[in-house]
Amino acid sequence: MTTAFMNKSKLIRDKIRQADGILFASPEYNYSVSGPLKNAIDWGSRPPNVWADKAAALVSAAGGSGGNRQQYHIRQIGVFLDLHFINKPEFFLRRPLAPPQKCDRDGNLIDEVIREKLKEVHLSLLPFGKFAKFLQNASEIANQNSILGWL
């Protein structure tokens, strides 16, 4: 592998490691996760797994399903990665270019109702991410100070 490629994967891993929470925003490809997103997930999972104990939320856009199938696949992948997803609100943007149009031709969200629903996802992830980080730090402290730590 080239040095430039390894540097980019390290940059992605560092950004994930520093984040309190992760917002996965992706279209659905062939009823599943897009190739680029799956590749990024796989690079983050290489030892040591930088996804572990991160809070996460999902948003997607696709035809009739709104991307729900790819979201469920990411949730399944997240079990192995030890990601902690918010359960609600769910966000599936169905037919973003069909009337009434929710996005303009450049992909910018123009529907205010949908914009508010997306904002709810963000607002739900923020405290969940802070709480997950708090639990992770508390667990590390407990492990360092535990009588069982020497076992």
Automatic annotation (TrEMBL):
- Output the PANTHER family linked to this UniProt entry: CHROMATE REDUCTASE (PTHR30543), NAD(P)H-DEPENDENT FMN REDUCTASE LOT6 (PTHR30543:SF21)
Extract the InterPro entries matched here: Flavoprotein-like_sf, FMN_Rdtase-like_dom, NAD(P)H-dep_reductase
Enzyme kind, highest EC tier = oxidoreductase
| Organism of provenance | Coffea arabica
A Pfam family that this protein carries is: FMN_red
Naming one, the record's GO cellular component terms include: cytosol
Q: What SUPFAM superfamilies does UniProt report for this protein, alphabetically?
A: Flavoproteins
EC number(s) given by UniProt: 1.6.5.2
GO function terms (MF aspect):
FMN binding; NAD(P)H dehydrogenase (quinone) activity
Gene (name only): LOC113728559
Name the record gives this protein: NAD(P)H dehydrogenase (quinone)
Q: Which reaction does it catalyse?
A: a quinone + NADH + H(+) = a quinol + NAD(+); a quinone + NADPH + H(+) = a quinol + NADP(+)
Limits of the NADPH-dependent FMN reductase-like domain: 11-93
